[in-house]
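Exam revision sheet. Question 4 asks you to relate a sequence to its structure. Input first:
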Amino acid sequence: MKHWTPVPPVADREFWDRIAATVYGGLIQADAENILTLPMPNPSEELYRQSFVTRDRATYETQILALIQQSRSLAIAILCSRKPEFIERFSANLDMFSGMKSWLLPAHDRHPHVTIAQANINQLMITNDLVSLDIAAGLSIAVNASESLLDAQVVSRFRAAVAKRVLEPITLIARNRRPYNYWMILKHNWNAVCYCNTILTFLAADIPDDERKLVIDFALDHIKYFLTGFNDDGYCQEGPGYFGYGFGHFTYLSWALYEASGHTLNLFDNERVKQISAFPEKMMLSETQLPLFCDCHPRVFIRRDLMEIRDYLTGKISGVDFLPPKMKESGRPQDLTLSQQLMLIAFSKGENLRNITLNAFDAFPQTGVFVWREKDLSFCIKGGHNREFHNHNDVGSYVMVYKDVPLLLDPGQPRYNMDSFHSGKSFQNKLRSSYGHPVPVCNDALQLSGFESKGVVQEYSENGVTFDITAPYRKTAVRKLVRKVDFNRQDLQITITDQAEFSEASTFAVPLITFGKWEVCAPGMLRIFRDGEWEFFCRIEASSEYEISDELIDDDILFNEPVRRILFTFKDKAQNFKISTTFIMEKK
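Answer key, structure tokens:
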């Protein structure tokens, strides 16, 4: 019945004083000191209910995520320092969570997540989401470790809330006495994230062993759905950002079970899992850059801790050498969940990260995603289809990086609101539609959604690929549309050739997406530049005359600035078009 908690109790001062003396421990305690100067976040019931009226997700989410974020630092800070003021504030946070009617985000307290709208806030039925289970898992582990510092009633109220919100309803589901939660048989990140935190919560609970085993077995049986959501070649349909989130939680779940079972249960002892886990290095354009396909935050990266844990569980290394401050890309250790930070604290052996090795060429041939690398130049293009998880209508989209700088880009995800995943509204956003991607425009028509809107790989090699991308434009007069990429390793040049054939006289245009400004520097040659930072050149060869226009896109964008859409439009209608754009890193 005794719980499993990865870290030792706060009374083990040799352990916690050592953690407190690390750079990581210092950052955590400094963050906790800063938190004491801030007002406590207030994710109130009023703000929760307003979300359904205003369609605004951000106001309530900002408050509850800030409360979660602050609780993470405070939980670890009290273990490191035992400062009374940290304990008092952390206890207040626990009591706030204990008193809340719902731990869900409002966007998840409606269809399809619940049968009856606002079922959680109205106390009709308790369900769980990504956030509620994160709260339960991380804080349950932290409370177990710090229990001797906390008031017994604070601990009792919080554990009762966890039992009510997580332990009891999910146990009933595992016993087939309640309908499944929305996420339990999904094939995307929700499945892995929720089952990870479910298992961590049950491992941390003082409950009968048979009850814990029942739920863990149920979770492991149903997390298999998540693995089937990856393509046959191991590609993550949700894009690099959600790979880190979804498979990242699967990785931590595997690590927790491996340690909790005394190294007898290893979910990475599986060829399918190993294949999927190779995704990071296959997709990275450089150590700091990834293509922002699908819903990706502009500052996305695949965390090094996930690669370290993967290599440990697959036997490539003898232990995990990672503490959160080594995440230089993020700058804040709080980017990890509380349970993830506590596991790294418990099991990490140090901070000596190995170098990442990237291949000259990587391919996901069944999906149609290809990455070429040569010296400082990297290029990635995707085929896929327009019904992927977190889909953007982007068949044929590409990204180019030179010297760690994204010169041509996919603009990533827009800012989420209550209608972001509403099928009738999501593609009205320019960043989700093909409008905001570097893909052709046929008769002023954008790409269509759906499985049938796919790119068909005709041939590929270490130096290029040819796609048939006709299907996404099937309701236009286009008969055939082929996009070809040539990667010139010797001259560090990339040429994209689009060739279109129509059944009647039509219009045709091809855009570039970049941060840069542009100017014509010679006939058929553009200079694309960012003042004082970088420049490259674009040579255009077209079958007939074209004109150039541009537009800044700032449609709820998450970048700090708009992106520029440079459009090459043929002046006259025709039935056949051909245009080649060659990107030149250094003008000869």
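Marking note for examiners. Residues 327-334 have pLDDT under 50 and may be disordered.
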